[in-house]
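Table S2 (continued). Query chain:
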Amino acid sequence: VQLQESVGGSVQAGGALRLSCTGSGFPFDEITMGWYRQTPGNECGLVSSIDWRGVPYYADSVKGRFTISRDSAGNTIYLQMNSLKPEDTAVFYCAARLNFLHRTCAGREGYWGQGTQVTVSS
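Corresponding output:
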């Protein structure tokens, strides 16, 4: 199983970035894919996910600013991040797991990408 993440980037507060992640080698169909982030203070949690039916989840901190989508083949997801804030600065990890993704990073269950840096300056 591989998860290939796009390169993140650096933007000023209020700016936008789009992340993508393409998965391959999944042995099953009912996969939920999403993004975790780990902040410089080592806080880690699920930012957003989308399941195989297209049902999204958003952490409260990103609702209304981030939008997750999934391509028709089901193996590529996109995270459109608007109105970015300095507190969004983090390493973003693409992840995939059967059925659902846990809200916390504990145990890092499922499959994880290498991570990509997103930096938002004030």
